[in-house]
Amino acid sequence: MLRSTLYEAASSLLNRVKPGKGAGLQAWARALKARTSHKKAVVALARKLAVLMHAIWTNGSTFQPKEAYLRRAVKAQTQIGEWVRLLLERKPSRLVSVALANKTARIAWAILAKGETYRSA
């Protein structure tokens, strides 16, 4: 039952909902539909919705697209927040979000590789 509900929600999001602000999932699914087939795009979108909902339920958090993540990073009074602010002055937000994800991944890798705990600067 949940599978069919997710499929129906994904199909509606892909076909019936008008694109608007914050429609990153919809844009991703439409690009996938252009490369593959409609059915594969709907199934992939349903799976992505399931993963998002599971993460929200297990963390008890709310859905926040990457733009909200950037706004939160900009407001932070940290070295990374300052780095993001300076980068946003020169580069588009999509590029900055990718750069921030890469920086976060590099920090996580360094922590795991060295076996240390995270020390915020």
Automatic annotation (TrEMBL):
InterPro entries, per the entry: Transpos_IS110 (IPR047650)
Domain of life: Bacteria
Protein name as it appears in the record: Transposase
Organism taxonomic ancestry: Bacteria, Pseudomonadati, Pseudomonadota, Alphaproteobacteria, Rhodobacterales
